[in-house]
Please model this.
Amino acid sequence: MEQTINKQGRPPYGIIAVLMIGAFIAFLNNTLLNIALPSIMRDLKVEPSTVQWLTTGFMLVNGILIPATAYLIQKYSVRRLFLAAMSLFAIGTIVAGTAHVFPVLLTGRMLQASGSAILMPLLMNVMLVSFPIEKRGTAMGVFGLILMFAPAIGPTLSGWIIEHYDWRMLFHFVTPIAIAIILVGFFLLKDKKEKVNIRLETLSLVLSSIGFGGLLYGFSSAGSKGWDSPYVYGTIIIGVASLIVFILRQLKLEKPFLNFRVYRYPAFALASVISMVVNMALFSGMILLPIYVQNLRGISPMDAGLLLMPGAILMAVMSPVTGRLFDKVGGRLLAIIGLAIIVITTYDFSTLTLETSYTHLIILYSVRSLGMSMVMMPVSTNGLNQLPTRLYPHGTAMNNTLNQVAGAIGTALLVTIMTNRTESQAKELGQEAMKKLTQQPTPEVLAQMKQQVLAEAMLHGINFAFLVATFIAVVALVLAFFIKRATQAEDPIQEGSKGGQPA
Model:
């Protein structure tokens, strides 16, 4: 693919534009669903630990398929991969839009994820090989601006649709757009791929799927089954064992399925760890905040969407700005400032009350989004900059895979913490309330007391989960001090072809 794109002598803006539109609609679909989770819980009668599977199940499929994208990107043309990915996404959208039971909705989401898993690494790889290293920060900033526009309009649009229509309309709204994008891609994408002599390493695919899938499934099941369930610790143990065998096998293969040698490059390794830790802390907010504002505060879906809008717009506006700053000052300063903001605001989220003002929530979320805009793209771009061009597909696949794994683990961990804390607090508060009663309560008084106890217990659970997320973000902040500006390393294989031995 690099040869096809580089022969043009200038960035292939047409290909990038089509890919960005496809990635935008996939990203929009994710942000549309976040506000809808409480409505889906009520309509399909499922608990938070179950509805989280719409997020973690999406990540599960991503975690299984993204490792294969390094192979797919090297094997097939941009056109073939884009059309296949968007077709899978469109089919999943149609299935989810017709769902009247949770398993069907989850199946549709997983089909969407199978398409989305290919789109993002494909676009990232095209961006990396299209722009020189000194212009890459600005290019990634524009890329971020377009993709961050989805969170800007997604929650508000979702809130408006849910207030006026059934939540299934969210998928019906996306379906014709996805089909239109497929048609645009079919007629506009013309790139060809030179025949590449590369075969899919089947055993590696199986080990990768069992490893990442087992790990994600185990952590994602903890919220509903508990950490002491054999399903939870059993699948985690199987996942870890499979991943160890998978990694050892990749290090022995001449053409690995997923090249773990990218971790020989210190800037990439550090960026990867920081991104994983940040994702663990940030993904949780996507589930915890909608539950707080809608279930506890009774804020309408439309107002809940408007609450998130200023922060998303700020991220979109800041993306090209941080891209330019990255080109000038590097990623270290941006990451330290951004992570400091994330730590402070996440801690502030751990002090929510049932009277916290709507304005305070908007300001807090917006400032947190500012911090996010200074961390995610600069850190990952700095890490990828150190890799030789040949390793870009493996670097992007590795980043996307481990970010999905970290996000799913973080979400499952913090939702489980919230659930367990809520249950223990509900028992404690319930016992205290019963002790304070001076006479036999009426059924109405009992119902009112139960409702109040559950609300206070859930608030305590959400606050405690945000407090844990704060400590996770502190780990990323400490690591950010070790970031150094990366320059592209020499390719050991190319050096070996000049007379030395390949690494």
